[in-house]
Request: fold
Amino acid sequence: MTQQYFTPEQQQVLDGRFRASEAEWQEILSELRTEINKGSDLNSPDVRILARRRLWSMKSIVQGDSAIYESLVKMYQQEGNIAADWGMSSAEFDYLLKAIFSMALGDITEAIIPRHKIFTPQTREVIRLGEIPIREINLDVLGTEGILLGILKEHNNIAAQTLTEMSVHYEAVYSIIKEWLGIRPPAETEPFPQLPFAPRAKRVIELAIDEAKAGGRSQISPAHLLLGILAEHKECPPPGGVAARLLAEALNVDLQTLEQRLREKI
Reply:
């Protein structure tokens, strides 16, 4: 089917990218089928994570190539159900699309992050403190850099203590963030009572939930957030989230060592 939508050159590029992501896609598909068989709600964290992972894998396939993107969209628009091309049944394909829609709607509305349910009181304070410097430079979303600042500012948590042991301090991190992101003009609209999370920060929170569950916890601690930052850095395409990139590139922190030390303490 794809030959009529892609040039031979594009097809060759896509074949290589699909092969590179085949193992991951088969793992996603297997887990998706498990969730379907369990009757999992589309809003469950596990299903949202699978939907986001599929979008990330598609991003690695398109890689910002507008021509390939347009051809993929055209193929879907004209062919409709392309489940077979993904090795899926129509029902599985429909479930995945609904999961992606549910996840995207939740992202836009911020409805999928019930802060008082999934964050410990200390973590909620980390988020509150992280918003303050981000508002000072007039950003309108809380990204991984804001989470890192909040962890350091709260300072009574294991993550902050581990970072301090590795010579990472709030003032230095804030200075680098201002240099990298700049101070933007004040917004003309009324600011949100709570800053919405940036897409990478939302993924960090999902990964932090996994970390908490693995440790038998029902809520995310600041240490889980930092582990989420490190995990998101591993799975996402370069350049990655600001927080992990800042630690590694600007402060020369060995992220593997940081993770090992953090895990020893939780």
About this structure: Residues 183 and 256 are 31 Å apart (CA to CA).
